[in-house]
Amino acid sequence: MTLMPPTAPRHPVTREFHGRTFTDDYEWMRDKESPETLAHLEAENAYTKQQTADLEDLTEEVYSEIRSRIKETDMSVPQRAGDWWYYGRTIEGKDYGLSCRIPVSEGQDPWVAPVIPEEGRPEGEQILLDLNELAEGHEFFSLGASSVTTSGRFLAYSVDTTGDERFTLRIKDLQTGELLPDVLEGIYYGATWAGEEHLFYQRVDAAWRPDSVWRHRIGTDPAEDVCVYREDDEQFFTGVGTTRCEKWLVIEAASKITSETRVLELDDPEGEFRVLWPRQKGIEYAVDHAVIGGQSRWIVTHNASGANFEVGECGIDELPHLRDLNVLIPHRDDWRIEGVDTFRDFIVAAYRRGAIGRLSIMVLPETGYGHFSEMEFDEELYTAGSLGNPEWDAPVIRISYGSFTTPARLYDYRVATGEFTLLKEQEVRGGYNPEDYTAYRLWVPAEDGAEIPVSIVHRADLDRSQPCPTLLYAYGSYESSIDPGFSVSRLSLMDRGMIFAVAHVRGGGEMGRGWYDNGKQLSKKNTFTDYIAVADALIAKGLTAPDRLVAEGGSAGGMLMGAIANMAPDRFAGIQAVVPFVDPLTSMLKPELPLTVTEWDEWGNPYSDAEVYDYMASYAPYENVEAKDYPDIIAITSLHDTRVLYVEPAKWIAKLRATATGGEFLLKTEMSAGHGGVSGRYARWRQTAFEYAWTLRTSGAVSVADGDSAGQGQPDVR
């Protein structure tokens, strides 16, 4: 039996704010427990399955390609913490990994990571967690905290088995292998040890905001846990951790634009936290600890001197105004300082210049400070970062490196000599030659003249004499940057003649804080017009054509997808929106929803401000669906997503189907997943394969009727 597109019933409700009225026919879908809602989602899933049945063979091909390129039995490079080397294993056929460790061997360099054999188990190996065992019997599984005491005796770990990002924490005695009776239910991500007797963690309020930090004493009833800090301002989240030197516990309360830090000496976990710099609206700062010439100092990254941040320092108890700190890295208009990591003998700074993230290191002399020296790499487009590095007195730091064409690499960098030691490079099975692919950057003028960076990746032998099938990705919110990174799965697109492009639109952080500020709140439409400008430029240059161009974005990037669907439907053959935030005005008018109040700094507060209401109403994707032809659209969501509720894409697809004069609209809801989608690596690969199969078909890169590549003479890799 051939299924017809599901027609959602209309149960109109009226929303009134600021004298404005909006009738919502599909708000009834918000009732997650309603049989009508669940029946509609299941009907949408059945219809999507029918309409994509012709993709089954292609999906299986792409899935097989992804799997064939990945080394399924593998391990991470050991990372030293205390007297142990910690690492992870993956085993072919197993969805999840194993957390392991071996002791640091006597007589060997304690800073040179041991080589772990691929087969068998090294002497002294201890399996801390087998995530496959923890996930058994659950359709969804996610690990939250995994934190070991400095001594190495106790492991605190937490799991989520529904996808709602609420975790149950247990404590394991690694000497005996036994679980302690302590069980902490419904907590947030993470757990921070203070010695072996105390554990700090976060709980959430009714809106699922991490509003409080708690202290648990090992061996006591969790009902006796002490709330050490509660944040009453609904725009602020809390976080807790320690400095690398293990001298300070740190609690941070932060909104999108303001932060405040409290500290407590780690050896006094039942003491009182003290505020460093009291919060000032619009001022953000983060602290780290250094010892300079035998004196303890705060190293502070802050924006009190300029939007792109500055790094200063002061004594532990001096605390002058942030603008009056001794400057280590000054504010500059052409770079965005992202933070510093301090070690006993050096400081690592991370910053962004020219839309590329960069690293610089200062070696600390016996007295005073040294000078920062930037690390240099050969490629135009790359991503480098300081990774892990838990040990305060380490003479080496772990550096990750990769690009669109270079598989991920892991180095040890010995600071004293400047020597890089390659520890591991991501293996691409079946053979991979980076020279077969090329990556470069274009600059596209926006409507107002701003220059938008665009990353382009494709096969080096791609025939560009005619428009090519292209996937144009973007995010454009929260100052998040889409940095160059290698993707095994993406090879299945490019080997079929597709171009992969990233539009680094405003709202992201690629070009500094101003780039972000000009793509948020009452400037949000710049995100959408930037993306359209990039699409137009790619078409004008002949790289692609409207019938060959597919747009993709997820979460806040899904809002972008919904907006450009309304604003420029004729530029795209298809739009793929993953957990898309397409009903933002409704969500921002509901303070009781998770994240809403904290999000007002990002989108504006339409609840209280009529100007913001009108501005959001003018672009909100769901509210601006019109009776016109749209490209084909597929929306992918999860029933248990607490960040972008399933109801948003469900309403959007229903309205598109009822209103648009052209286009196929599909909704795929994972019934046992969260914001990040399905769990388990094989399920994730298969989901990626499905999404790519849809993209390949929609862009015309392949003809699914016969499975042949349509990609300008490119090989059809099977």
Structure in words:
This protein is α+β, with helices and mostly antiparallel strands. Among the domains are: 274 residues, 3-Layer(aba) Sandwich (Rossmann fold), CATH 3.40.50.1820; 140 residues, Methylamine Dehydrogenase, Chain H (7 Propeller). It is built from twelve helices and 41 strands. An eight-stranded mixed β-sheet has the order 32-33-35-34-36-37-38-39, sandwiched between helices. A hairpin with a 5-residue loop joins β8 and β9. It starts with 12 loop residues before the first strand and ends in a 9-residue tail after the last strand. The relative contact order is 0.11. The C terminus is likely disordered.
In short:
With 718 residues, this protein is α+β, with helices and mostly antiparallel strands. It is 18% helix and 33% strand.
What share of the residues lie within helices? 10-25%
Strand line-up of the largest beta sheet: 32-33-35-34-36-37-38-39
Cα shape: globular
Look at the structure and give the CATH class of the domain at 37-68 and 431-583 and 621-709. Alpha Beta
Family: Belongs to the peptidase S9A family.
Domain Peptidase S9A N-terminal: 5-426
Domain Peptidase S9 prolyl oligopeptidase catalytic: 485-699
GO molecular function, one term: serine-type endopeptidase activity
